[in-house]
Every structure is written in structure tokens, then in C-alpha cells.
Amino acid sequence: MSILQVQNLKARYAQTGDDILKGISFNVAEGDFYAIIGPSGAGKSTLIRCINRLVEPSEGSVSLFGQELTRLSARELRKTRRHIGMIFQEFNLVNRMSVMDNVLSGRLGYVGTTRSLFKLFPRSDIQRALELLDRVSLIDHVDKRADQLSGGQRQRVGIARALMQDPQLLLLDEPTASLDPKISRDVMQLIRDTARDLGIPVLCNIHDVALAKEFCNRILGLQSGRMMFDGKTADLADSDLERIYELEVL
Amino acid sequence: MNAYNSIQSKAPAREWSRYRFPRDLFRFTALLACLLGLMFAIDFLGIDLARLLTLFGRVGEVLSERYFPPDVDYVMQGDYLASVVETVQMAYLGALIGMLIAAPLAWFASWNVTLSRRVLYPLARLFIMASRSVHEMIWTILFVTVLGFGMLPGVCALVMFCIGFAGKLFAEEIEVIDMGPVEAMRSAGANPLQTFCYAVWPQIQTAWTGIAIYTWDVAFRAATVVGFFGAGGMGWYLKRNVQQLETERVAAILLSIVVLVVISELISAWARHRLNRKRDANRIAIEAEAA
């Protein structure tokens, strides 16, 4: 069963009018760990951001569990975004807040505005945050400020924050690009195992082809906004990789 | 032949000049234009530069003949001291209310996180710019004309001044924040107010505190003279004594203003220094931890 359906998705720069995405279509099914690979500037980040409309697509459709996302009002969009967890390359934590508050901020879509202004999160949310922090082995760092953690630890806070949303889909924007090779593998492993346990499909931007091949079951190859490959990881041949990266020069 | 010469001899013969045409022509022309403008202005205003040389001597003469000794007893009277308290309260109210209005305005006037780029952004910008473009003394005159003499027009003038002053600085701080956390909150389904409180506020908190202290400082300085235009406080006494040619009292009032402004500046400098030290200590602790 496909959970996320993307059809003929297009996006363009507001100023120049150049297309960044030139008609992308793919389906993410239950249990998928979908990788988007491609050279820098291919539109990987834009594609990921079009899914939850951090970037507005100019054309095409994105539907999650049959609900069309491109036509939602601002309020409906916020409601839907709650179910899409996102993990970022630069972690995007609030440095001056504690690890606990960073994780709890994943619940903002559920907690009323007034309550959230005074950081009055329900007891059940705090319990859930502690469970997740235990899961990502950060239970001893609950009260530390986010900027006191190492890169790998920060990304694990980012993962806990995304899981706090009770997501039905995880979007990963280069989750390992700011980490060293060993930590990168650990983080990917953690995400894969967690997603598997919770039964959440993952859509992941990644420039490291080896990591993509190791962790992902499906691969989408992008090159300057066009799809060059879409299929199972096992079917990705070296010639496909050459085609995807052919335009890249030093 | 040494290594340097051997490298040099292989380099292709090319012309290179530090100066680029027409870029440098424009630069030197602009510089020349500034200098000519300066000369023209001095000539146009008929300023006799030789008179400047005797300036200090004459200032000393006038001060010692007419303004010395300052009438210290006058500024120690109850009436005058009460006006000092009034001035402090006027500055406090003006700065506080002004900044309370400036804070949401600054949010709307920040291109990166404004609620609406088409409507609220230009309106908020316009309001802040309008408050800035009118000098605080002109605001005082305007409010005195509308509201009559007293403290209220003074407070209103200071509010307008603080909106312009703090609003601009507040907005500048918001516009340089890291947008990553903002994106993260939005992607989690947070509404704009939540996004502001969780992603923007933690990043600007320290800077805004510093700006608030600075704003108070400037507002207090302005408050000491708004009375000159009929808005109460110390400035009113200043005006009256200037008009009555009570120069020794004027000297004492000016002296009291200087003393108060210096005290206020010392306190705010100390507060800002503490704030910076706290921030530095934090950063050092983080770097130590990382190492």
C-alpha cells in the first residue's frame, strides 16, 4: 500500500522562474526506506521540502494517506505537518534550550498556544520524551543545553524530536552530512531500526551513495530536477549512477 | 639562479595593475566630490575658520563670568528634586510602553519571520520608520500641542521615540537569526506564535535585553529635555531659568543633568557588561565541553 504519492511535482525559484523540479513522480509504500540521491543542486532538498510544503510546489500533487497536501489551508497544513517528522542536516535544534525542551517542541502542533507559551506540556508528553531520550541513549543529558552536545548527540535529539510528533512519515534532509563516517552509520542505523519498530516509512535525501545502498530499499536518482532512476536498490547498476552524476564536474 | 628566480623566469609575461578601469575612476571621483562638497559647504555658510581658534578661550570666559559658581542650592530644593523623580518615571514609562509596542512591531517588520510579507511587513516598517524620522523633540511639541502641558505628552513622545529606536534594532536582530530552528518548528506543525516563542525568542533574548538597556539609557537622556517644550520634568526648570537669564541656576541644572545621565549610563554599561560576560562564559563553557 502506498502511503505517500507524489505526481508530476514541479517547483521553481520565485525570482528567476527557473524550474528546480521538472515533474517528479514516485510512491512511498509501507516499510520503505526511500533514498533520494543526486549531485549538489539536483533539487533533493527542494523535493523533500515540497512534501511538507516548507517550499511551495508550483505544480503537481502530493498526497499522504490519500489526502491532497498541496491544496490545504494554513491551518489544515499545520495539522497535517504534525504527522510528518523531519530530521535536518544541521540538526536545527534551538541551541539555547535544554535537550528536554527541544524534544518537547516536537509536540507544539498538539499543545494549545497558551499552554505552550508557558511550556506547560502534558505529563504524558514528558513521559514520552523521556522514553524517546532513553531510546536514543541521551537520558543522562536531559537538562543539558543543546549546544553542549556533540554532533552525533545533537542529531539524536533531532531524531527524538521528530519521533515526538508521532509521525506517520519521516523526512530526512541529509541527516549525516554534518557527521563523521562512523557516527553517520550509527545514526542511519538508529533511524532505520526505529522506523522499522514503529512502522514508519522514511524518505531520505542523501549524497553518500554507499550509505544509501546499505540502508535504503529504494532509490530515486535526481539530476538537475529530473528523475534519472527510480527502483529497488538491488536494481541500481553502476551505469545508472554514472548517468545520475554525469554532469557533475570538479 | 635560485629557486625563486627559476619560477619567475617560467611565468608567462603578463601586465598586471592594481587599478581597474572604470571602477577606480569612480572611486577617486567620489572622493574628490566629497572634498569639493566640504569646501563648498564651508564657503556657502560663510564660516570663518579663524574664529574657531578663539572658541575655547571664549567658552572658558563666558562660563567663568556668567555660569560660575553654579547655584547648587537651587537644584537641592524639594520642587526641583521632585521634577527629577518625575523625569525618571517619565523615561521609565515611555521606554517600557514603547518597547512593549516595539516588540510585536519588530516581529512583523522582520522579512524572514513576518506574519504577512504583503501587508503587515510594509505597515510595520512604515510605522517604525515614521517614528524614527521625527525627532523626539518634535514629537514633544506635537503632543504638547494636542494634549496640552504636563507629563502625558512627554510620555507619549518618549513612547514614539522608543518605538522607532528599539523597533528598528529589535527587527535587525530577528533578521539575522539562524532559520534552521524556525524551519524545524514549522515542520512540526507549530503556529506562528509558537514558532516565534520557541525558535526566534531564544536566539534574540540576550541581544534584546542589551537593546532594552540601551533604549532606557537614551530615553532617559531625552526625558531630561522634553520639559523644555512643555512636557514637564527637569527640562521645564531649564527653560524657565534660561528665559529669566538665571545663568548660575542654569549651570546647576545642566550639571545635575550631566550627573544623572552619567549615573544612568554607568548603570546601563555595567548591566550590559554583565550580560556580555554571562554570554561569553557560556560560550567558553561550551567550547571547553566540545574540546
From TrEMBL, chain A:
Signal peptide: none annotated. The keyword Transferase does not apply. One of its GO terms (molecular function) is ATP binding. InterPro entries: AAA+_ATPase, ABC_transporter-like_ATP-bd, ABC_transporter-like_CS, ABC_transpr_PhnC, MetN_ABC_transporter-like, P-loop_NTPase. Keywords: ATP-binding, Cell membrane, Membrane, Nucleotide-binding, Translocase, Transport. Residues 4-249 form the ABC transporter domain. SMART domains: AAA. It is found in: Cell inner membrane. GO terms for cellular component: plasma membrane. SUPFAM superfamilies: P-loop containing nucleoside triphosphate hydrolases. It is a peripheral membrane protein. Pfam families: ABC_tran. PANTHER family: AMINO ACID IMPORT ATP-BINDING PROTEIN, PHOSPHONATES IMPORT ATP-BINDING PROTEIN PHNC. This is Phosphonate ABC transporter ATP-binding protein.
UniProtKB/TrEMBL annotation, chain B:
It is found in: Cell membrane. One of its GO terms (cellular component) is plasma membrane. InterPro entries: MetI-like, MetI-like_sf, PhnE/PtxC. SUPFAM superfamilies: MetI-like. Pfam families: BPD_transp_1 (PF00528). It is a multi-pass membrane protein. This is Phosphonate ABC transporter, permease protein PhnE. The gene is phnE.
